[in-house]
Amino acid sequence: MTRKVLLGRVVLTAAALIAGIIPMFVDLSPSHVFNSAWPAHARLHEVWLLSTGGLVALISLYLLWIDRQGARSLGLATALMIALLGGFFVAAATMDRYGGVLIDPATVSLMPNQDRMLGLPANLAVFGIGLVLAVIGYLTARGAVPER
Predict the structure, then answer these.
(1) 116 has which bridge partners?
(2) Which residues pair with 117 in a beta bridge?
(3) What is the pLDDT of residues 97-124, one digit of tens each?
């Protein structure tokens, strides 16, 4: 494995952790899943989203580190990460249509740094970084990964 491929896989691994693993630590908390103000059905959907995201991230990690079928595995792992992270941006871009918010005023006090990072809502900053890492990881490794 070349250094470019290794670096690309490591960067894509960071994107997978941001997209599928970190949200579990943030959202399985009193501010989200265990928030008694949330309707029970909304909590079900949140756990479903977290489970799906975690499983998609695990599939991506499998493709990157175990399956390793060349450019095909790299492309599929990247596509899964972009779909998972991109889904957040679809939700953010359309939140006016369904009454969504990036920072919940009712739970902002429960969040570190008042739910802000780099001057932005933390979710927007973290998932934006994850999306950029997915693209950088793919571009770093794609030319050095053999076709199979």
Answers:
(1) 121
(2) 120
(3) 999 999 999 889 888 889 999 999 999 9
